[in-house]
């Protein structure tokens, strides 16, 4: 499925962000994940639970039911399913039908995020999750802002490629990102490890723009600024990076933009952004500013990739694809994703 050369659109042996912790309560939260309806709620003890969202009795959506104790009750005929997915009660009879159960998804709740494992339950290894702590999440010495979830009418791979080629900042975001006109001209270096791929831009001797002046009020000299785009898996891309005083080389701080991607289906995705920073932790106005900026910047990216999705869905004859040198990182990530997906089919 474009832009991949494999038929399966996404890997399943994978952790994805299912929801913000703040979204999940004793009420049922419905969310499509990898094309499957899922319901998420909390038990009486506060533990998050995720179950398949279709009742096996007559295919009624369980999101239209309710939570009874720690169980989910179908709103159609009252079948009740425990938090582990097993049917515990059928109102019209004393026993339960054989094999009456729902799929229960492994979950991990960390740093205000609820992660869901969509592969086989035996493979739900927490060590396969990204290292959130190193990115500034769940730490008292960093500030964090959670931006509202957006559900986007486009395949998740289009957003991955959008984020890996930040030269689009110069054009898509020319009204919303200060000094963004310089980004496209900064040379690119691709750095690969076994678990990540970074498309790195290092802006040197950049004049102090209004955003940097607000973030670092004592700074008067030019800055060196990293414009990273780091692929940490199909679920997470980090953009942003470190900022230094250009004269002394002293680190001013690190600003990360953490982009969490979860496919809702082949051509829809859930998109969550967290901003983290190592400076100004006691200045909430900086966080408020990030949320306001995000509310302007994110729709511009969404509009761009939804426009591409509409072209792909139109049935129009596509021109022969071309790439530029700056696309090297995105093309390497395509190959990584294809290898990951193919390895799953070989394991079946």
TrEMBL record:
What PROSITE patterns does this protein map onto?
A: RIESKE (PS51296)
Q: Which InterPro entries match?
A: Cholesterol_7-desaturase, Rieske_2Fe-2S, Rieske_2Fe-2S_sf, VanA_C_cat
Q: Which domain of life is it from?
A: Bacteria
Per UniProt, which keywords does this protein have? 2Fe-2S, Iron, Iron-sulfur, Metal-binding, Monooxygenase, Oxidoreductase
Q: Transmembrane region positions? A: none
A molecular-function term among this protein's GO annotations:
vanillate monooxygenase activity
Give a yes or no for keyword Hydrolase in this entry: no
Keyword Oxidoreductase, does the record have it? yes
Gene3D superfamilies given in the database record: Naphthalene 1,2-dioxygenase Alpha Subunit, Chain A, domain 1, Rieske [2Fe-2S] iron-sulphur domain
Enzyme class of the recorded protein, top EC level = oxidoreductase
* Domain Rieske, residue spans: 15-116
- Listed EC numbers: 1.14.13.82
- Give the protein name, as stated in the record: Vanillate O-demethylase monooxygenase subunit
Q: What is the species listed in this Swiss-Prot or TrEMBL entry? A: Novosphingobium capsulatum
């Amino acid at each position: 499925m474009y832009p991949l050369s494999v038929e399966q659109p996404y890997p399943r042996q994978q952790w994805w962000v299912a929801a913000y912790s703040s979204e999940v309560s004793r009420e049922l939260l419905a969310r499509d994940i990898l094309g499957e309806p899922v319901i998420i709620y909390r038990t009486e003890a506060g533990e998050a639970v995720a179950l398949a969202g279709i009742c096996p009795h007559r295919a009624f959506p369980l999101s239209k039911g309710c939570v009874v104790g720690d169980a989910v009750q179908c709103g159609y005929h009252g079948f009740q399913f425990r938090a582990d997915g097993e049917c515990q009660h059928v109102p019209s009879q004393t026993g339960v039908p054989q094999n009456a159960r729902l799929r229960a998804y492994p979950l991990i709740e960390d740093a205000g995020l609820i992660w869901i494992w969509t592969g086989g339950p035996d493979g739900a290894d927490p060590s396969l999750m990204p290292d959130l702590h190193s990115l500034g999440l769940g730490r008292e010495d960093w500030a964090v802002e959670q931006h509202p979830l957006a559900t986007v009418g486009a395949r998740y791979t289009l957003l991955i490629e959008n984020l890996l080629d930040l030269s689009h900042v110069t054009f898509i975001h020319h009204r919303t990102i200060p000094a963004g006109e310089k980004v496209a001209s900064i040379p690119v270096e691709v750095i690969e490890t076994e678990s990540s791929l970074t498309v790195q831009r290092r802006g040197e001797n950049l004049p102090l723009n209004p955003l940097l002046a607000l973030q670092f009020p004592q700074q008067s000299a030019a800055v060196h600024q990293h414009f990273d785009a780091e692929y940490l898996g199909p679920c997470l891309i980090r953009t942003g990076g470190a900022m230094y005083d250009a004269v002394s080389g002293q680190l001013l701080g690190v600003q990360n933009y953490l982009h969490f991607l979860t496919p809702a289906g082949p051509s829809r995705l859930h998109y969550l952004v967290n901003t983290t920073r190592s400076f100004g932790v006691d200045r909430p106005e900086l966080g408020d500013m990030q949320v306001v900026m995000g509310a302007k910047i994110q729709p511009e990216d969404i509009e761009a990739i939804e426009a591409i999705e509409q072209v792909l869905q139109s049935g129009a004859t596509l021109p022969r694809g071309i790439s530029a040198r700056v696309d090297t990182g995105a093309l390497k990530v395509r190959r990584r994703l294809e290898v990951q997906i193919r390895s799953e089919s070989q394991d079946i």
